[in-house]
Input
Amino acid sequence: MGRIRSADWDRAGQAYGELVAARAFLCPADARAGAELAAAIAAGDDGVAVRTGVAFACANLWRQPGCRRPATDALASLIPGADGPLARAAPRAFTAGDDLPPDDSTGRLLRAVTERAEVLARAADSGLFERLERLLPQEAEPTYRICRGIVRQRGRDLGSIQQSWALHAANITNVALTLQRLECPFRGAGPRAVRVAPRRQTPRRRGGTPRDRLAAAGAETGVLLRRHRRRRASA
Output
């Protein structure tokens, strides 16, 4: 693992973070991997690439029963300071299945996301909103706070058919209507959470050349998962 981290490769730090986290989760008896994972999580701004790799490993392994709790612990530590690529990686834990199991790990992750605006803004790309309604009434509070936070940040984009955020307006509206029917403290607050302001805006072109977009490979799924899929496709 040390050789990967020191390799002359622009994503070496991220790959190391993914590998050390996967090793620590899948082989909990490996004390060295556990210590390196703890050091990576505590590294702060000095190890953004490594922390991003850890977040991708957490997201990709979060659904596996033996990894779920330690992956949740790691994500809960990473999300409060997440921005940039780390903020993009963390919400991907929500994409691995059709539903989010209504358990303690899901609740902890949802509550962590509500406290970090940068991660919340990235959550739309993770398919989170399509799954939120099915978590009610068990996770009414974080569900309400996530929807309210998104509307505050992206209300105008939710009301514009020229923005990708508009695709999530129906899901958020359904959540609000469900909250309205529940006997919970958020009853009556649901409709207020989804008021969006329409606006006109010209479509934006997708930036960068094909080479630029290919250079970003690994920024959306993680380095190790992408390479694993590539090998399977060529087999």
About this structure: Residues 196-206, 210-215 have pLDDT under 50 and may be disordered.
